[in-house]
Amino acid sequence: MTHVAHPYSQRLGIIRDWKDRWFVRDRARFREYLKTDTLLREWLKKRLKGMYVADIEMERDANALRIIIKTSRPGMLIGRSGEGVIRLNKDVQKKLAGMRLSETPQIKIDIEEVRNPEANAQIVAEMVAESLEKRMPFRRVLKQTIDKVMANREVQGVRIALAGRIGGAEMSRSEEIKKGRVPLQTLRANIEFARAEAYLPYTGLVGIKVWIYKGDVFEGEENNA
Q1: Does the residue 6 lie in any domain?
Q2: What is the pLDDT of residues 111-139, one digit of tens each?
Q3: DSSP E strands: which ranges in the chain?
Q4: How many angstroms separate the most distant Cα atoms in the chain?
């Protein structure tokens, strides 16, 4: 049985940077930071579902935790006069207080806008999930989505895969659509990968995977992914 590596992890240190950026020498503190970041990221994804969050990054220093949320709907997240961010900050502080940490850091939340959402794998996966949950035909959803993604100049290839009881079938199966090139074996290839899930009332859970290829990144070039 083959083991497929995550396209992001394969490219760490080559064309990708870590999503958690901090350093500690104490093993106990390292375990605490890693567990806190993992649980907090999972909670934030559920809390911000439907707001087209592309990525969540975290940076730490001695006393502060900076959370960077990248979304294509910053206005919805920020709210009027920043009320949304203030409310989210309080919710994050309550979540951290419930984890019983050795030290509770100061929270700073930054919102970054994703300028081109149709070229971001996570947002595209959520768009597909949202359309499937509206009971749209899955073949039409795949075709329309892949045409929108390929309309972007920076995108050179896209692949979308569905798995589950698609179209109300009795048995689960997989469907896939691909356009352009998606060279998974090339480490300098700038490939975004994302997963999402669609919850359908009669057929249950449908898994969604999206790969988007944006060309090769060579040494000395800036990676804006």
Answers
A1: no
A2: 999 999 999 999 999 999 999 999 999 99
A3: 20-21, 53-60, 64-71, 106-113, 157-164, 173-180, 189-200, 204-216
A4: 54
The boundaries of the domain holding residue 141 are 117-216
Residue 87 lies in a domain: yes
Q: Is 223 a residue whose pLDDT tops 70?
A: no
Q: Which long-range contacts (CB under 8 A, 24 or more apart) does 29-37 make?
A: 29/102, 32/101, 32/102, 33/60, 36/96, 36/99, 36/101
Q: Within 13 Å of residue 81, how many CA atoms lie on the same side as its CB?
A: 0
The total of structural domains in the chain comes to 2
Ranges of H-type helices in 134-197? 138-150
What is the sign, positive or negative, of the torsion defined by CA atoms of 15, 20, 21, 24?
Answer: negative
Q: Are 162 and 137 in contact (CB under 8 A)?
A: no
pLDDT of 135-160, one tens digit each? 999 999 999 999 999 999 999 999 99
- Kindly state the tokens that stand for 3: 């083991």
Whether residue 144 sits in one domain with residue 177: yes
160 falls within a domain: yes
Who's near 22: CB < 8 A, 6+ residues apart? 33, 58, 59, 60, 61
Q: Is residue 222 part of a domain?
A: no
Q: Are residue 200 and residue 141 in the same domain, yes or no?
A: yes
42-81 pLDDT per residue, tens: 999 999 988 999 999 999 988 899 999 999 999 999 988 8
pTM of the model: 0.89
CATH code of residue 54: 3.30.300.20
Tell me which residue of 163, 223, 190 sits closest to 8, measured CA to CA. Answer: 190
Q: Is the separation of the CB atoms in 32 and 74 below 8 Å?
A: no
